[in-house]
Amino acid sequence: MIVKNSALLLERIGRDKKTIFIFLLSTFLFCLRDGAIFSPDSNSYIGHSLIRMGTYPLIISFFQFLFKDYAFQILVGLQLILSLIAPHLMSSFFTKSFNLPWQIHWVLLFVFLLPIVALKSANDILSEALAYPLFLLASYFFLKGIFQTTIKDLYMFCFMIFLLTFTRQQYIFYYGIALSSLVYLHLFQHFFKKKSQFLLAIVLSLSTYMISERSYHYVYHNSFSGTPFTGEEIINRPLFLATEDSYKLFKDPKQSLFVETAVLRILKKNLMDAEPAKRELNLFYLNSNIIHHQIVSPLLEEIWDKKTLKDDMGDTYSEFEFRKFTDQQAISITLTLIKNNFLSYMKNYIKDVMRGFGGYAYFAIVFFITILLVWNCIMRKNINLFHLSFVFSSLIHLGNLSLVCLVEPPILRYTYSTGLLLFAMLLILGYQFTTLTLLKKSDVLCVE
């Protein structure tokens, strides 16, 4: 009797909204003690660096204008509030949608709060501090809109992915997910009559992002252009896989010199093995940052020197135009290296994507479950909302990893947001499978 009463009391406390509020408030105060955490990348946001997207630098400037010396303390407070609201919304949404018990709700809440508590993500003066809650909010409106086929939620989703992408460009893959959801709506939700409005909202969101990015650079860097940082990032992996003879592929003497010098410097620093077949992913994971900062970036400025370019460009020269020019050179070099070493590049790239999933076994499990759920939906012509959520969560994580691995190894800093969403789906799947198994055993015992 005492045990039963204790269990009922615990359940009442666990379900009570006041308990959740007190817990979130305690988490807020606990994290707020650490204040603002600055890293080497923080200054690039504070100073409106030309390699950064606009949302976070603009927010910093706005807070500095309003709050002066207290700007970063208040900014961290806002980041924490958003980073607590978004996990609460997601865990509550999953609990209601899939009829989960209160214990699972708390487990999901803990999972989504992990980056805030363990990594201090909301304390960082980095775009990730804002991107994580924005990603959860975008996912919340996306799944809610798809589940309930409500156009208002889908409109909010389109607005959120604009903010998210203008904060961190890596999330541009979400536009592809949005378009894929239209295929689902067309095939399985015939009664939903606002597909064209949703498509228009996606197009407007993407267009607004592209115009906003260019307008931001026009205001701050006097050039109506995209962020000139693509080439410098995507060139790292092709260089890591290049040979000492790769420079011979280039007709342009400066591009040839760049590749020859870069490969020699990488080998001299022992950042990769001289034999391409022995170059392991671990080395790329450990050394990609060094390759970028100590070799690629300085060498671009060394070979295409600013003085020569300034003489050629005259009055149109600016730091932004210089970076845009060298970025275009880096993109051109990257495409040539990939084209002439395509199989090796794709093998290395796909391995890294799988590694970002948590290893080959984890990737295989998720892939198998996803295919099984999709096949089940097609055969039954009946959509299970959890199955749908799992499939889209898998696609979201795969989309993020596919984009991240184009420019970086799958570093936790860039992958935990989508990874935790998929992990939450796996937890729910585990709970549902366990519950179903116990029910079947119970039915068997009753029959006996």
Short description:
With 448 residues, the protein is an all-alpha fold. Helices cover 77% and strands 0% of the residues.
Task: Give a verbal description of the structure.
The chain has 448 residues and is an all-alpha fold. It has a domain at 230-350. The protein contains 20 helices and no strands. The protein has helices at 2-15, 17-32, 42-46, 55-67, 71-97, 102-118, 128-148, 151-167, 173-188, 195-221, 230-234, 236-240, 253-268, 281-303, 306-313, 319-339, 342-357, 360-380, 385-407, 412-447.
What topology does this entry show?
Elements (H helix, E strand, L loop, with lengths): L1 H14 L1 H16 L9 H5 L8 H13 L3 H27 L4 H17 L9 H21 L2 H17 L5 H16 L6 H27 L8 H5 L1 H5 L12 H16 L12 H23 L2 H8 L5 H21 L2 H16 L2 H21 L4 H23 L4 H36 L1
Number of strands: 0
What percentage of the residues does DSSP assign to strands (E)?
A: under 5%
- CA-atom Rg in angstroms: 25 Å
**C-alpha termini separation:** 29 Å
Helix content: over 70%
User: What's the order of the H and E elements?
Assistant: HHHHHHHHHHHHHHHHHHHH
Based on CA inertia axes, which overall geometry fits? globular
Mean pLDDT, to the nearest integer, reads 90
Major sheet summary line: none
Query: What structural category arises from helix and sheet content?
Result: mainly alpha
Tally the helices: what do you get?
20
Low-confidence stretches: none
